[in-house]
Q: What sequence folds into this?
């Protein structure tokens, strides 16, 4: 069967050594151009990040000391501290982590290991992925409506923790599902072949192997939640408070709220205090990520 003229010419060009060399040369040139474009983007991002960090450290490093960590907020900058906000953030962390671990990982295990693969399951997974990208202010409005007003929890620690936990759940579920999918099917089949039940296989084989990825997702979600301001403003976290929470139903404030309060002041000293608060918040986030990396590496080496 004779080939059309166009196909014959294309095949003839592909067999032409000069044409092939020219095309390869053009592709290598494009590769070099895009490599330098991406490198320029990376350098630009690093320069902006370094500038921001330098500005924050230069303004706030001199204000970070033991008194700053233990003092209560004050209208006098030299006496102001963030002790209530620091304790409030710790309360939120202690409440959010168990919540997202139990509910988020449990939902991921059900969707990945037990739920039937049908349109309803696909619909639920797509909506969970979409919820992971919803702006935080939407979760703040949801928390204000459900937890503060309907459940009458008020401006309490538990209301803030439930709102931030609700915001973190989609991220944890998606990350946990990906971690569970990365476990090889051979491990499941071997466990089932030895007589283990479905739950025993999931709990003793699949979950430990997926734990590094799950922990990474939880830490990323909690890190995002601890740095959020909009949801806490919506649920009524106090911008100025002179007491620390005594329970889950106590009024509270958090580091982002305190930083936001200081940045709204016109005095230059309060801007320096806000920079010092950002340094403390970044230190907490770095410490959390360091613990996550240590746990992830430990379980990765074990499994």
A:
């Amino acid at each position: 069967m004779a080939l059309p003229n166009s196909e014959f010419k294309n095949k003839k060009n592909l067999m032409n050594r000069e044409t092939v060399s020219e095309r390869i040369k053009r592709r290598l040139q494009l590769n070099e151009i895009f490599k330098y474009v991406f490198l320029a983007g990376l350098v630009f991002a690093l320069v902006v990040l370094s500038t921001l960090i330098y500005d924050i450290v230069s303004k706030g490093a001199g204000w970070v000391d033991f008194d700053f960590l233990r003092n209560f907020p004050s209208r006098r900058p030299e006496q102001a501290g963030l002790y209530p906000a620091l304790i409030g953030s710790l309360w939120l962390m202690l409440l959010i982590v168990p919540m997202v671990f139990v509910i988020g990982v449990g939902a991921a295990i059900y969707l990945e290991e037990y739920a039937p693969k049908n349109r309803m399951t696909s619909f639920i997974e797509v909506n969970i992925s979409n919820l992971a990208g919803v702006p935080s202010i939407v979760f703040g409005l949801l928390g204000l409506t459900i937890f503060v007003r309907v459940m009458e929890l008020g401006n309490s620690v538990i209301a803030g923790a439930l709102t931030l936990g609700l915001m973190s759940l989609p991220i944890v579920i998606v990350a946990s599902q990906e971690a569970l999918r990365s476990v090889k099917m051979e491990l499941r089949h071997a466990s089932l072949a030895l007589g283990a039940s479905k739950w025993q296989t999931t709990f003793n084989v699949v979950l430990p192997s997926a734990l590094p990825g799950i922990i990474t997702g939880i830490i990323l979600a909690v890190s995002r939640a601890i740095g959020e301001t909009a949801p806490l403003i919506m649920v009524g976290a106090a911008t100025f408070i002179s007491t620390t929470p005594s329970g889950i139903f106590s009024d509270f404030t958090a580091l982002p709220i305190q930083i936001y309060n200081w940045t709204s002041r016109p005095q230059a000293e309060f801007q320096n205090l806000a920079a010092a608060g950002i340094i403390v918040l970044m230190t907490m986030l770095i410490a959390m990520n360091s613990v996550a990396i240590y746990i992830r590496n430990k379980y990765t080496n074990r499994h």
